[in-house]
Structures are given as C-alpha cells and as structure tokens.
C-alpha cells in the first residue's frame, strides 16, 4: 500500500485518472471498497468526475447522463430545494467544495431532479490524500427520510393548527355556556372549585366569597342540605343528577334552579369532580305557586258562593211557601197577617243579600275587563270624607265601638269619581266594624306636600301575617270562617287604582289593622 501511495504522489492528476480507468490491479482493493456502499461515491476535481462507484454511475445512467462525458459538470445537476419554508443551498455556478474545504460545513444538502422527482442528498467531500484539488464526493440519499420528515412536520403543523382551532372553538363554547347558563364545579365532597360570573350575579356573591366554600353555604333549610348530600352521592355513584335545586342568595332570598349535574372522570376512570349547568326558574316556580293558590282560592270561593246563593234562595222559597200556605187566613187573622209580613221582609232581606253578591261579581268583572265607567271630576276631599263618615255611623250597631273622625286641615281638592270614592271609604269603614267587637274605629285625614292621606284604623282582630300580602286578591279573606265572598277589598283596591290612588295596609294579628288611602293633590 505504501508503494501505491508513493506512485500516487508522483503521478499527475491526469495519470491518476488514466490508471483508475484502466482498472490497474493495484487499485482492485480500493475499487472493491468503492463499490460496496449504496451511497453515491465519486472522485472529482469539483466539476468533472474522475471516477465513480456503481451506485453513482447507475443513478445518473438511469437519467441518460454519462458522468464521464467531458461536458458533464456536477454543479449543473445540483438544484436548490425550497419546501415548507426550508431552503437548502444549491451550488450552481460556484466552487461549492471550497466552502467545505474551508471547514464552513461538514456537508451540504442538495437536490437532483430525476424523472420529474427531486431526490434529496446529503453531500460531503473530503480532500483526496496527498493530491491537491482532488476530492472524494459522497452523496447519501435522504429522499424518503425527508419525505417522512415533511409529512411529520405537516402533520405536526396540522395538529397544532387543529389544536389551536379546537382551543379557540372551545373558548367560544365556554363563553356561550357562561353567558347563557349558570355554571358551578364541585369536588367530590361538595366544595366549590369554580363558579361563573352569571351564577355569582344571580346569588349576589363574588367568586372569592364562594370558591373553596362548601356548597351548603347556599342552603337555606336542612331539607336543601340533604338534597345536596343526595346529589353528591349520586355523582360518586357515577350517575347524572337532573332536578330542581333550591338555593339562597347573600341577601337570604330564595331562588329555584333547574340543574343538571354531571360527574367528571380522569383518564383512569376515577371521578374527580362534577360540573353543574343550571337555569334559574324562580319566576316560573312562583308563578306556578300563585296559580295553584289562585285555583285553591277560586275553588273555595265557588264553594262559598254556592252556599251564599243557596242560603238566601232557600230562605226566599221557604218564606214564600209559608206565606202562600197562610194566604187564606190573612184576611181574617191578624196574627197570620203579621207572620206573612215577617216572611216577606225576610225574603226581601235575603233577596237584597243575593243581589249584593251578584252586583259584587258584576262590579269585579267590569273592573277587570276595563268596562267600568268613572266620572272623574274635582271634589273637596274633606267634604267627601265627612259625608261618608256620617253615613257609616249606622254601621256601629254594637254600640260598644268608639267611632272617631279627625281631620287636620279644612279644605283640599282632589280628582275622583265621587260615588266610587265614597264606596271605597264605605268598604273600608264597613270592614273595620265587621272585625271590631270592642275598642275603636277611626277615620283620619292628614296631608303632606304632594298628597292627602286617609287612614281607616281599628282595634279589631287584625290580619294573620301569612295572609296580609294577599288580602287584596279576589276571593281572599283574612280567615276561612269569615262571612261574605272575599270580593270587597279586591273591588276597593281596583277602584283606588282606577282613580290613580294608592291603597295599602298594615296589620298585626290581635291588635287591629290600618288601611291607608293616598290621594294626589291638585
């Protein structure tokens, strides 16, 4: 091998080329190693090919290129590759191997076009031992590897893009849920881990006041706490809860929510928390309760009206039957005449009661349908109140009630229908006498800057607190045993509202009531 090296050192480049081409036996070992590799290997001066292995020759022969043609130049087949933003340097029209010779790069990446397909190679060159300007060129085909790389990069970019898009869409979905629903998350023991702003606003809390607290902070009764305990157990069992939940806000107001509570599992299937999507249905629940209450009141009313109709009608029939039976004796028997007179008077009284009941129903119906006519004019409120007070003195039939009138001013003008105004006061005064056995009934007039205040106060039985808020509703009565139909106060308030007046009440059971009528000055 030493002898070969010495011959090479003393042989010019052209002689080396000839020796290699003649396949000198001294180079057989070198040539066998040369052809074993699948890489494309050539001996070159940088432009022309001095020698090449079988892989190098076969690759270019397949493209009808003779690499030993004097006109063949390596730099002519090297292409610049630009894919997916990566630029691989090409080497046309420049001494590319000098870059490597100056140790700027160990290898370059080039492309060679074959059958309209770009083959990508890593290219490396080494100085041929002891021969100036002669190099060993090695091309390693990385086309498939780069294809895999490009596909992988494309997929990674697609995944990244899809993930970004998914995150963007998820954010919008979360925003939509947060805006339209009440969202709360809890751990498996019922501690709040998240609550959205909409839920906080509904309950009048801040997030800091609720996150980390037990869900039972929203309970108002033991029954509600038991409900939450049941929900948490349902979640631990891996089941979904659907139902109505009752919560209390920071100001202790009760709210009702339609809730769906879903368990959240980790990848191993363990339940780690739950999320609840809720919608407030407080108004719907209250409306339903009001409707059921109204239905109950109307049922009671119709039962009572049936009784109220039946009682005077039966009395009228009985009295008229007895009067007819005694008719033949009337002319001859004074006692019979007195008895028939009594029957007729009772029939007349019951007829008036029946007529009053029918009139009350008609009045309420007309007011509700806006068919009641009001003749609004200017009147002196002092004169109207005094006249009504005096006309109602006959209602003090028990004699044990102190009936009072107090007026703090002499004259005041208001707009009203005088008949409806008088009826309003009559109803209030009559109601006061009805529920006062002893004590007093007073009518008092006072004024402020903008209005007159008429108060009808009594020391009677008062109104139970649970019925006070509904006392002006149709068919409502302070007590179930009260006589009458329960229409008087409802009609009275409707009259007041129609004349732009305000009627309210304060009462304490066992200590009397005070009805206040507020009338605007003119």
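Sequence proposed for the structure above (522 residues):
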């Amino acid at each position: 091998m030493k002898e070969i090296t010495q011959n090479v050192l003393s042989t010019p480049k052209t002689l080396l080329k000839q020796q290699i081409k003649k396949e000198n036996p001294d180079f057989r070992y070198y040539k066998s190693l040369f052809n074993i590799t699948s890489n494309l290997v050539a001996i070159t001066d940088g432009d022309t090919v001095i020698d090449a292995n079988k892989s190098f020759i076969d690759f270019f022969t397949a493209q009808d290129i003779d690499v030993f043609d004097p006109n063949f130049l390596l730099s002519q087949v090297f292409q610049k590759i630009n894919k997916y933003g990566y630029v691989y340097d090409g080497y046309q029209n420049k001494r590319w191997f000098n870059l490597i010779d100056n140790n700027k790069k160990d290898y370059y990446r080039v492309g060679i076009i074959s059958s309209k397909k770009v083959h990508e190679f890593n290219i490396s060159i080494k100085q041929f031992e002891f021969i100036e300007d002669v190099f060993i060129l090695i091309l390693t085909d990385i086309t498939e590897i780069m294809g895999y790389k490009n596909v992988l990069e494309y997929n990674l970019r697609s995944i990244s893009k899809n993930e970004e898009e998914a995150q963007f869409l998820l954010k919008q979905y979360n925003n939509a849920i947060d805006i339209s629903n009440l969202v709360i998350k809890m751990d498996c023991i019922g501690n709040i881990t998240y609550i959205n702003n909409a839920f906080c606003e509904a309950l009048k809390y801040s997030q800091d006041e609720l996150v980390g607290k037990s869900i039972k902070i929203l309970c108002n009764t033991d029954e509600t706490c038991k409900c939450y305990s049941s929900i948490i157990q349902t979640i631990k069992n891996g089941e979904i809860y659907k139902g109505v939940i009752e919560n209390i806000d920071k100001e202790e107001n009760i709210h009702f929510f339609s809730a769906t509570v879903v368990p959240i599992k980790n990848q191993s299937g363990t339940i780690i928390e739950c999320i609840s999507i809720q919608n407030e249905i407080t108004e719907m629940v209250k409306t339903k309760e009001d409707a059921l209450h109204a239905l109950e009141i109307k049922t009671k009313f119709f039962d009572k009206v049936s009784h109220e109709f039946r009682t005077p009608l039966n009395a009228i029939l009985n009295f008229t039957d007895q009067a007819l039976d005694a008719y033949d004796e009337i002319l001859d028997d004074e006692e019979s005449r007195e008895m028939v007179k009594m029957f007729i008077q009772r029939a007349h009284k019951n007829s008036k009661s029946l007529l009053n009941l029918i009139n009350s129903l008609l009045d309420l119906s007309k007011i509700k349908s806006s068919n009641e006519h009001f003749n609004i004019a200017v009147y002196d409120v002092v004169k109207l109140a005094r006249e009504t007070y005096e006309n109602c003195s006959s209602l003090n039939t028990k004699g044990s009630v102190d009936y009072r009138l107090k007026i703090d001013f002499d004259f005041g003008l208001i707009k009203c229908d005088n008949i409806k105004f008088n009826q309003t006061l009559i109803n209030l005064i009559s109601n006061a006498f009805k529920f006062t056995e002893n004590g007093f009934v007073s009518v008092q007039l006072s004024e402020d800057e903008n209005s007159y205040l008429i108060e009808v106060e009594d020391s009677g039985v008062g109104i139970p607190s649970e019925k006070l808020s509904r006392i002006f509703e149709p068919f409502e009565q302070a007590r179930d045993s009260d006589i009458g139909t329960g229409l008087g106060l409802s009609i009275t308030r409707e009259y007041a509202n129609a004349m732009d007046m305000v009627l309210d009440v304060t009462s304490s059971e066992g200590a009397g009531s005070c009805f206040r009528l507020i009338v605007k000055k003119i």
